[in-house]
């Protein structure tokens, strides 16, 4: 499993709850984080390189736990690798289907909102529902730092969420895997009348389906490995307790 950084841990939590006996390796591409401002070509190349690395490490299934990386690179990865590859996409389809007001918002990175895949999702699944795309500028960096509740984080979220309250939006799609870690603040500002759509549980169900009938490795206890492409693993190790509630050792794996 990999993400541009630590956001994919929201997917990691759902997958490890669904498959407690399976060992999972999580790679955070913190040397290149955030992906949002980067070009689609660069993100696609990086996604393929990381997935090749994980396959070479013995992965039997890869989860691209990043909406931006999925939009840019999942097709290239699936064409290059023979193992199952699960991507993550904004939950536009269920949000649009459940919307009563006919207006939903998608919060995501700039790269995701500018991608052809996002345009395709809206065209195929939104129907007559109005979709209001909004970039969460600076949000990824706040999650990477484990800064989930500070006044500055609150300000960044309020700048995006508060204006939506006058737009008759009844669903907010969390279109970046970092954003569920900011959901408590988003919920506080949005109120109970707006549904937050997070695809993590759906991704976990998909993973379970793909490995149905297979057995985990003989190693007991479902060992979890955490890797970062940053040269210094200590910042990631320091933030893990704030995001997933546990301390784990982190290994540095700089990739070309």
Structural notes for this entry:
This protein is α/β, with parallel strands linked by helices and 256 residues long. The chain has 2 domains: 139 residues, Rossmann fold (3-Layer(aba) Sandwich), CATH 3.40.50; 107 residues, Rossmann fold (3-Layer(aba) Sandwich). Helices cover 44% and strands 15% of the residues. The chain is built from 11 helices and 10 strands. Strands 1-2-9-10 form a 4-stranded parallel sheet, covered by helices on one side. Strands 6-5-7-8 form a 4-stranded parallel sheet. A two-stranded parallel sheet has the order 3-4. Strand 7, helix 9 and strand 8 form a beta-alpha-beta unit. Helix 1 packs across helix 10, helix 2 packs across helix 3 and helix 4 packs parallel to helix 6. The longest helix has 17 residues. It is globular and about 50 Å long.
């Amino acid at each position: 499993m990999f993400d541009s950084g630590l956001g994919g841990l929201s997917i990691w939590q759902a997958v490890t709850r669904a498959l407690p006996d399976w060992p999972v390796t999580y790679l955070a591409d913190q040397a290149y984080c955030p992906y949002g401002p980067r070009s689609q070509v660069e993100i696609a190349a990086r996604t393929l390189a990381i997935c090749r690395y994980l396959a070479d490490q013995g992965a039997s299934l890869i989860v691209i736990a990043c909406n931006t990386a999925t939009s840019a690179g999942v097709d290239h990865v699936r064409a290059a690798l023979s193992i199952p590859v699960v991507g993550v996409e904004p939950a536009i389809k269920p949000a649009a289907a459940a919307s009563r007001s006919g207006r939903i918002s998608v919060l995501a990175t700039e790269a995701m909102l500018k991608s052809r895949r996002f345009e395709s999702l809206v065209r195929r699944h939104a129907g007559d529902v109005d979709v209001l795309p909004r970039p969460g500028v600076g949000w990824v960096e706040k999650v990477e730092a484990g800064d989930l509740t500070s006044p500055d984080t609150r300000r960044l979220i309020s700048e995006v969420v508060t204006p939506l309250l006058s737009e008759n939006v009844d669903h907010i799609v969390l279109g970046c895997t970092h954003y569920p870690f900011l959901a408590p603040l988003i919920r506080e500002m949005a109120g109970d009348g707006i549904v937050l759509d997070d695809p993590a549980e759906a991704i976990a169900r998909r993973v379970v389906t793909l490995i149905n009938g297979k057995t985990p490795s003989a190693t007991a206890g479902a060992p979890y490995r955490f890797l970062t492409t940053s040269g210094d693993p200590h910042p990631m190790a320091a933030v893990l307790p704030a995001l997933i509630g546990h301390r784990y050792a982190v290994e540095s794996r700089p990739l070309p």
